[in-house]
Amino acid sequence: MLENLNIIIPLTIFFLIDIFLFVIFLIKYKQQIDISKKIDEMYSKIHNDINFAVVPNSIKLSPGTDDFIQFAIEVWRIEQRIIKIQNILPENQKKGIENSTKKLKRYFEKYDIEIIDYTNQKFNDGLNLDVSIPEYTIPFLTAS
Question: Does residue 22 sit in the same domain as residue 66?
Answer without folding.
Answer: no
